[in-house]
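Q: Here's a chain of 81 amino acids. Please give me its 3D structure as C-alpha cells.
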Amino acid sequence: MLTAAQVLAQNNFGDTRSGGLAGPMGLFIIVLLAIATVLLIRNMNRRLRRLPGRFPGQAPEGPSAEPAETVQDPTDRADRA
C-alpha cells in the first residue's frame, strides 16, 4: 500500500531521459529566430537607405516652409472699438 508521502514524491512530469532533446532543439530554434531577425533588420535598413529624401508632391521641409495650419489668437479681435 502506498503512503501519502510516496504518492506526493512520485515524478508525474514524465521520464526525464526521453525528453533530453528538448533543450538542444529549443536552443536551435532560438538561434534560428535570432539569425532571421538580424537578416530582416539588415534588409530593412538597406531598403530604407534606398528611399529618396523627398517624394513627389511632398511639401518642402525646413524653416522656409509655410506652416500647414495657422492658429488665430483669441485675444485678437476685429470688433474692438
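Q: Can you summarize the key feature?
A: The two ends are 105 Å apart (CA to CA).
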